Amino acid sequence: MQTSNPIVGIIMGSDSDLPVMQDAKNFLDSIGISAEVTVVSAHRTPLRMVDYATQARKRGLQVIIAGAGGAAHLPGMVASLTSLPVIGVPVKSSNSIDGWDSVLSILQMPNGVPVATVALNAAKNAGILAAQIIGSSNTSVAEKLDAFKANMKDEVLEKAARLQAKGLPNSFDTNQ
Ligand code: RP5
Q1: How far apart are CA 122 and CA 162, in angstroms?
Q2: What ligand 1 atom has the least distance to the C-alpha of 69?
Q3: Which of 45, 89, 93 has most ligand 1 atoms within 8 Å of its beta carbon, as the pocket-test mutant?
Q4: Within a 13 Å sphere around the CA of 53, how many CA atoms are in the beta-carbon half?
Q5: Residue 176 above 90 pLDDT?
């Protein structure tokens, strides 16, 4: 399927990362941000990685979300090749020891080459953060993010009300 004028690039080291990375695409779809999705491997296709990162800005991308597992060098290497913001998603993959390897490979970048690293497998947060970056200069996206946050607040208040309805003590809400 062709995505018209994608402004977010979602890349991952292998198609085995897709079950995690799909959450980023789903969130961006839900607020109407066009995103493309493909496989780019730092180790298996290094020249494709260089091409993707160096062409990203002129192709119209504004943010790159990169997910990988194990020796997860894709986000950091892409960040070294572009001045676009790069959000890294550590994936607990078949070649991960316990997930810490993926987290630390993406998190511990040297000064000068930041990667905004989300939690293990937290691709939805990567999608939200990408939208927030775009929303900093796009009012329509910002309004959708405000609605998303307001909805989260309502959900939490409903959860609190459900606990209270079970008779659990909650003097905080009772006394508001
Ligand atoms: C990493 O190796 C990929 O990002 C993936 O998380 C992991 C396993 O890849 P496959 O062996 O499933 O292709 O580079």
Answers
A1: 27
A2: 6
A3: 93
A4: 24
A5: no
